[in-house]
Specification:
The complex is a heterodimer of chains A (about 230) and B (about 800). Chain A has about 230 residues and is an alpha/beta fold. Chain A is built from seven helices and ten strands. A six-stranded mixed sheet of chain A has the order 6-7-8-3-9-10, with helices on both faces. A four-stranded antiparallel sheet of chain A has the order 2-1-4-5, with helices on one face. In chain A, strand 9 and strand 10 form a beta hairpin. In chain A, helix 3 packs parallel to helix 5. Chain A is globular. Chain B folds into three domains: about 170 residues, no CATH class; about 220 residues, no CATH class; about 210 residues, no CATH class. In chain B, strands 1, 2, 3, 4, 5, 6, 7, 8, 9, 10, 11 and 12 form a twelve-stranded mixed sheet that branches. A six-stranded mixed β-barrel of chain B has the order 15-16-23-20-22-21. Chain B is globular, with a radius of gyration of 34 Å. Classes of the chains: A alpha/beta (about 230), B alpha+beta (about 800). At the A-B interface, helix 1, helix 2 and helix 3 of A face helix 1 and helix 10 of B. Chain B: InterPro entries: ABC3_permease_C, MacB_PCD, Macrolide_Exporter_MacB. Chain B: Its main location: membrane. Chain B: One of its GO terms (cellular component) is plasma membrane.
């Protein structure tokens, strides 16, 4: 599905040059569930930015399918992104002014989908995360767990091939955290590739493979026993 | 479309949530749009005079430029009577010509006299000016003398209806005219008299007019009527004008070609649609003023747009997450830019609707206060609505483009805490505030200076005392002419009347009669040109003109006796011609005495001066210089000449004790003396001030729109201050924890907003100085620019800015630091 070859990301400011990712090589296959772990500042967010096509690497190759997207411009990246990648964030990032239904629908508005089908798919996605009864509420009327379920619905409603989750349970209590992890596992079971950054070892255990980053380099890869 | 709905929902909800921001933004824009629209409508009205006539592009007014030795050429719209009929004869490209002469008449209704304007015109009048008829036939209505065409209003005034063909309109002199047509009232945007009646040029209007008017048929040096021509399609006015000198030398017996050192003239053409704004040969025309107003409209709108930009970009941090999420979900930046643009266009649309309401509400008051005129029908014309709609899109687009670029800047990576956050364009905002206040200060300085100059010129030393002088006009009417002296004597018996004297014209009447003078024995090279003012015996006394030497005209002095034409005067026995002054004495203004070479006023008294070629006058007195024109032109040297044949206006000096009863007694005396002439009186100082009405109106207009510009700029500053106060709450809390007091914080915030205003002063001052110096060049008498005015305008702007931001600063500064620190 995706292959990172000698991927390097360097941030330059006027005074300092920071190497966030250093010669990273990762290969993720279709349908995998991969967790990325590591201490703060190890390069997790930079990696997710690049894998999610929100940023370009400084050097190296990023093979997505059979295309090297490392040098693509924003317009091309946005196009690939919206067709293939869904995002789940630690702080949910729902838009306060839109209802639950509208937040989820937003993900389909950038696709060419007729209104009737769009409504169907939003309902379906909300039902899948068991939040359909709240569809006309505004985000601030929901609990954190409920908000994250809406965020998941928004991430999957466009039926992406890959889900990127950035500490999806970081702002949740353990019960809600478990529920979100179960949903991700189900989605993975249905064939969606999932790449998740997390600090939580128990939640990382849901993944089939755990990649450990340190100082911008992959230091260990562990395959969970099936 | 689907995207639009979603986006609008967000936009509307954000606008509702941040009510203050929305109100400030929409209000500023609405006021800006309303102000610009009002000025725009006014300018449109003024620049679209007479365009509604279907042959407007083929109609020209024939104007006449006079070249007098020693003077700048002056162009008048008045032409001699024999000109018009010859034009179509000599120029095949001229289809027809029409003369228009305005003759005052008095119409009787129910025993009372009413002053009306009668337009005496050639029968082809309606062929040029196709005014819509309610009754009658435009082709024949003016064909025969003795008929009259009325406007709808006049028909209602005299007959209570418009179905009045064949009815008789009676003048107080007994002449009766048959109504042959009723036209709709003329629109406001025509240079033709809107309140006039029309009659055939051969109609007899009374003895006092008919004889003179018939004599004028062959007189080429008396210019008193307007000449219009209709040319064939494709005629080049420049080529036509080039053939006029040859025409004049063939037809006008008095014509001398230009370029000699003698008086000469030239005919020029003014296109019908240019008559109101920029007639040919008139240098300081309305068009310049209108362009100025257009600039003011643009500035006011610009300030409102800048507000919009500033308030929008200052809120960008509130929308970072929304933008980032949309981008993560695949929205390209171009789409987001488009969406923010749509939002600003919509906000502009709301503002425009509000502006429309504002315009409707404020229009009657502004029309009254500013004296500007426009046809309300424009407001509902589909073209204007379309233009407004396009304007909304343009203004919304201009105002929204930069905010859209700023707002759409955050990248999706902010969601993953990896990338930079939105910058928000703070630098650009500061720059724009500077620009706003520069413009506002510039306008403020201009307003003050224009008012100062107007007050200066209107209170300019006139050479006479204009306070407490009443002008009574129309003594030249045949019913009054013979009784002027007895009327004057009766006036003097009214308590409160101190002095009274009559003249041909009053100051600021726009009369412009000049003649050549020279001292006997010197070379008459035609370069000494004085204004000739024909007056009665008591006029200079009544006007309060200051005598420098000698005496004024005196009934008792035999030297001042008048000679009828044909008698002989002087040692050489010169025969008095009809065009010579009937008196043998003259009173000169000080400037005239100097021009003749006298070094003191006393030196001139008793000496002789030659009027025109050979007519000698004795100088009996020298008076202070008198400003009989507006201060746009320099004081003209003036010769006062005695003549009682054409006295028309009586100057009545009142005592300080005069009151309403005095005026009532004067009116009563007039009605008893001249029952067929309506009372026509005004105060001299009002009349003089009227000469500056245009400047006063421009000043008032400018003051009004300057106020609006400052108001809008302050709305923006208020919004920015609110935003800054909110954003710096945490910083301010920390400062307070570290020991800053309320005054320190106040100073901090107020200083932040003082800087741009101070920079704005530095930009506005030199620009204002340059622009206003240029404007003042147009006046012969002008004020010196006072740096204090500049400083005051700048200080006022600063104070207003302080007051605007002080509220927010005080609130934030007074808050408990713990609240500030909790805020995040």
């Amino acid at each position: 599905m995706l292959k990172l070859v000698d991927l390097t990301k360097v941030y330059r400011t006027e005074e300092v040059e920071t190497t966030a990712l250093n010669q990273v090589n990762i290969h993720i296959k279709q349908g995998e569930f991969v967790a990325i772990m590591g201490p703060s500042g190890c390069g997790k967010s930079s990696l997710l930015n690049i894998v999610g096509m929100l940023d370009n690497p400084s050097s190296g190759q990023y093979w997505f399918g059979d295309e090297d997207v490392a040098g693509y411009g924003e317009r091309k990246l946005a196009d690939i992104r919206k067709k293939n990648i869904g995002f789940i964030f630690q702080s949910f990032n729902l838009i306060d002014e839109l209802t639950v239904f509208e937040n989820v629908e937003l993900a389909l508005l950038y696709h060419d989908i007729p209104s009737r089908e769009r409504k169907e798919r939003v309902k379906e996605a909300l039902a899948k995360v068991s939040i359909a009864h709240r569809s006309s509420h505004l985000p601030q009327q929901l609990s954190g767990g409920q908000q994250q379920r809406v965020a998941i619905a928004r991430a999957v409603v466009s039926r992406p091939r890959m889900l990127l989750a950035d500490e999806p349970t970081g702002n949740l209590d353990s019960a809600n955290g478990e529920e979100v992890m179960n949903m991700l596992t189900d989605l993975n079971g249905e064939g969606t590739t999932i790449v998740m950054v997390t600090h939580s070892m128990p939640h990382a255990q849901y993944a089939r493979r755990i990649i450990n980053l340190f100082d911008g380099q992959v230091v260990a890869e562990n395959l969970r026993a099936a | 479309m689907k995207m639009l709905g979603n986006f609008l929902r967000v936009a509307v909800r954000i606008l509702v949530r941040d009510r203050m921001y929305t109100v400030l933004n929409v209000a500023g824009l609405a006021i800006g749009i309303a102000a610009a629209s009002m000025l725009g409508l006014y300018v449109w009205h003024e620049t679209h005079y007479d365009g509604f006539f279907s042959k407007a592009d083929r109609i020209y007014r024939v104007d006449k430029t006079e070249f007098m030795p020693g003077r700048e050429p002056v162009t008048y719209s008045s032409t001699p009577k024999p000109l018009a009929p010859l034009l179509p004869q000599d120029f095949p490209e001229i289809e027809t010509s029409v003369r228009v002469h305005d003759e005052p008449v008095v119409v009787a209704r129910d025993g009372s006299p009413f002053r009306e304007h009668m337009q005496v015109v050639d029968p082809d009048f309606f062929r040029l000016f196709d005014l819509p008829f309610i009754a009658g036939d435009p082709a024949t209505a003016l064909a025969a003398p003795g008929t009259v065409v009325l406007t709808e209003s006049l028909a209602r005034k005299y007959f209570n209806g418009v179905d009045v063909l064949g009815r008789s309109l009676t003048l107080t002199n007994g002449i009766s005219l048959t109504v042959s047509g009723v036209i709709r009232d003329l629109p406001t945007n025509t240079h033709l008299r809107r309140d006039a009646m029309l009659t055939n040029i051969r109609t007899r209007l009374g003895e006092n007019v008919d004889g003179w008017f018939a004599r004028m048929d062959t007189v080429w040096n008396s210019n008193f009527l307007q000449t219009y021509i209709l040319v064939k399609p494709g005629t080049d006015p420049v080529a036509l004008t080039a053939r006029f000198p040859a025409f004049l030398s063939a037809r006008d017996p008095n014509y001398l070609s230009t370029g000699t050192n003698k008086p000469s003239k030239a005919l020029v053409l003014t296109g019908l649609t240019h008559i109101h704004t920029d007639p040919t040969g008139v240098p300081a025309n309305l068009l310049g003023v209108l362009h100025g107003l257009e600039a003011v409209a643009a500035v006011v709108l610009g300030i409102a747009v800048v507000n919009f930009v500033n308030l929008s970009t200052s809120r960008s941090s509130l929308r970072v997450r929304e933008v980032a999420v949309r981008k993560a979900l695949g929205a390209p930046r171009s789409m987001l830019v488009g969406q923010f643009m749509v939002e600003s266009v919509l906000l502009t649309l709301v503002a425009a609707v509000l502006a429309y309401v504002l315009l409707e509400v404020a229009m009657p008051a502004s029309v009254a206060a500013l004296g500007i005129r426009f046809d309300r029908a424009y407001l509902y014309s589909p073209w204007l609505l379309l233009a407004e709609l396009l304007g909304v899109v343009a203004v919304g687009g201009v105002a929204g483009l930069y905010p859209a670029l700023v707002l759409s800047r955050p990248t999706a990576s902010v969601l993953l805490r990896g990338g930079p956050t939105a910058a928000g364009g703070a630098g650009v905002r500061a720059l724009l505030v500077v620009a706003q206040f520069s413009a506002a200060i510039l306008l403020a300085i201009a307003t003050i200076v224009i008012f100062q100059q107007t007050r200066y010129v209107s209170s300019q030393q006139l050479g006479f005392n204009a306070d407490g002088v009443l002008l009574l006009r129309e003594l030249h009417q045949p019913e009054a002419r013979a009784h002027i002296e007895s009327f004057r004597q009766a006036l003097l018996r009214i308590p409160g009347v101190a002095q009274a004297g009559a003249a041909f014209h009053a100051p600021s009447d726009g009369s412009d009669s000049t003649d050549n003078y020279h001292v006997p024995g010197t070379l008459d090279d035609g370069t000494i040109v004085f204004r000739s003012e024909y007056i009665g015996h008591d006029y200079l006394q009544a006007m309060g003109v200051r005598l420098l030497a000698g005496r004024l005209f005196d009934r008792a002095a035999t030297a001042d006796a008048l000679r009828p034409p044909g008698s002989t005067v002087g040692e050489g026995g010169v025969t008095v011609r009809a065009s010579d002054p009937p008196g043998r004495t003259a009173v000169l203004s000080w400037r005239a005495a100097q021009r003749l070479g006298f070094h003191t006023a006393e030196e001139a008294v008793g000496r002789q001066v030659i009027y025109d070629v050979d007519y000698p006058l004795t100088i009996i007195g020298v008076v202070d210089d008198v400003q009989f024109n507006s201060a746009r032109v320099a004081l003209q040297p003036t010769a006062f000449l005695l003549d009682e044949s054409g006295l028309d206006v009586m100057a009545v000096r009142l005592t300080p004790a005069a009151d309403a009863a005095t005026l009532a007694a004067i009116d009563r005396l007039w009605r008893d003396s001249f029952p067929t002439i309506p009372v026509n009186r005004e105060f001299l100082d009002d009349h003089v001030r009227d000469a500056y009405a245009a400047e006063l109106r421009q000043g008032t207009l400018l003051a009004g729109f300057t106020g609006l510009a400052i108001l809008i700029a302050c709305l923006g500053l208020f919004g920015l201050a609110a935003f800054t106060a909110q954003r710096r709450t945490k910083e301010i809390g920390l400062r307070k924890v570290l020991g800053a007091g309320v005054p320190d914080i106040m100073r901090l915030l107020v200083w932040q907003f003082s800087k741009p205003v101070m920079v704005a002063n530095l930009i506005a001052w030199p620009l204002a100085w340059l622009g206003l110096s240029h404007w003042l060049q147009g006046y012969a008498y002008r004020i010196a620019l006072n740096p204090l005015v500049f400083a005051l305008a700048g200080l006022a702007a600063l104070l207003i800015a302080w007051v605007t931001v002080a509220g927010h600063a005080a609130r934030v500064a007074a808050a408990k630091p713990v609240d500030a620190l909790r805020y995040e």
